[in-house]
Amino acid sequence: MGCSICRTRLNFGRALSKVSLFFTMLLIFMYFFYCFSGLCNSIPRTQFNLQTLTPEYASQNELKERDGSAVRSVSYDEVLLASSSIQPQIPDSIERESLPSNGISVSNTFGSKKFPQAIIIGVKKGGTRALLEFLRIHPDVRAVGAEPHFFDRFYDKGLEWYRHLMPRTIDGQITMEKTPSYFVTKEAPSRLCALNCQTKLIVVVRDPVTRAVSDYTQTLSKSPGLPSFETLVYKNATSRTIDVSWSAVRIGMYAKHLENWLQHFPLSSFLFVSGERLVSDPAGEMGRVQDFLGLKRIVSDKHFYFNQTKGFPCLKKPEGSSRPRCLGKSKGRTHPHIPAEVLQNLREFYRPFNLRFYHMSGQDFGWD
Ligand SMILES: *[C@@H]1O[C@H](CO)[C@@H](O)[C@H](O)[C@H]1NC(C)=O
Ligand SMILES: *[C@@H]1O[C@H](CO)[C@@H](O)[C@H](O)[C@H]1NC(C)=O
Predict the structure, then answer these.
(1) Does the keyword Disulfide bond apply (predicted)?
(2) Which residue in the list 18, 64, 114, 125 is annotated as catalytic?
């Protein structure tokens, strides 16, 4: 009888020590997790630089984290449609902020939401999504997945609405967003300058003729009844005057839009990224971008491989991710046939704008 009580006590004691061992392990594990997330400020940074500087390590973690987040290559409208499933990204209610984050991610509860220090402001079909995906490999870059469209469509929602869209960042991390329509929005420069005139601005530009065709092809894939390219491109088909009110044409008049931006921002605020070089030499172009942002050159040729069949560079597949991320994803679309003469007309139309843009930016993009 007495012995059975003994045994129960002994078992209880064993269980207790197992539980305390478990909790000790858990604590140690949590501490390490905390430190490896780069949040352990009490330890000098140099001690774990080895880990953070190994590109594979950094990119795997970063990409894994991103795959888990609900916001990727979706437009803000799509996010709005799906808002019920990813509520925390939509700051309708500020109280949501103070709720515990279910302990899903440690980084969710650390740092704070800041206005972006750098924005990819353009251009549509230039390669802005690819650039942002490449930048997100960098451990010091945190970016909104969706396009906020704050300085064009949602300015009325106010600055706090905008700030709450941003991911949390800790010291030394850069907050970024991309909305390619800012570059062609008349009010965007003054609005952004009113918030922060020191914001770094990245513009991905591409040959305006191929950009226009790509833009049209995308629209056509969404609305198959669209009139032909040549119908839309001319204001007067007899005199062959180009219709500058058509957005596919207007967006490519880079000099005109840049002029508007230069009324509010100095040229030194801008980095012009060549959409063509982002494809032919992604690592080289990423080097320029990281220098401009004052980041260590972490994203390098180690992160890319060239898919010969596709003819485009891809990001090295992070472990556990099912599909590789490549540039030129939409290349599978059938391109509409556009007469060479029409393209030649458009090329001539753009030439003076291009030359002016080379002059303003101090860079020859070689589109002619
Ligand atoms: C189109 O251009 C032709 C030739 O320059 C001109 O005669 C005609 O009036 C123009 N049509 C319109 C609608 O502007
Ligand atoms: C390269 O691209 C082709 C065509 O999209 C695809 O079938 C193939 O799996 C890709 N190869 C690699 C190594 O990503």
Answers:
(1) yes
(2) 125
The preferred substitution site among 310, 321, 333 for testing ligand 2, maximizing ligand atoms within 8 Å of CB, is 310
Scanning the chain, the segments in alpha helix (DSSP H) are 2-34, 49-53, 55-68, 76-81, 128-135, 159-165, 188-195, 208-222, 229-233, 247-250, 254-262, 275-280, 282-292, 340-361
CA of 199 to the centre of ligand 1 (A): 46
CB distance 241 to ligand 1 below 6 Å: no
Q: What Å distances lie between residue 34 and 28, 111, 335, CA to CA?
A: 10, 13, 49
**Is it the case that residue 8 has pLDDT exceeding 50?**
yes
Active site residue 125: yes
CATH code assigned to 56-361? 3.40.50.300
Task: Give nearest CA residue, ligand 1 atom 5.
Answer: 239
**Is the CB of residue 237 below 6 angstroms from any atom belonging to ligand 1?**
no
What is the model's pTM? 0.72
- What average pLDDT does this structure show over 247-270? 98
Can you give the residue ranges of every domain in the chain? 56-361
Nearest CA to 278 out of 135, 132, 127, 176 is that of 127
Q: How far is the CA of 321 from the centre of ligand 2 (A)?
A: 15
Closest CA to 141 of 277, 49, 38, 36: 38
Q: pLDDT, tens digit, for every residue of 172-203?
A: 999 999 999 999 999 999 999 999 999 999 99
Rounding to the nearest 10 degrees, give the CA dihedral for residues 45, 50, 52, 55.
150
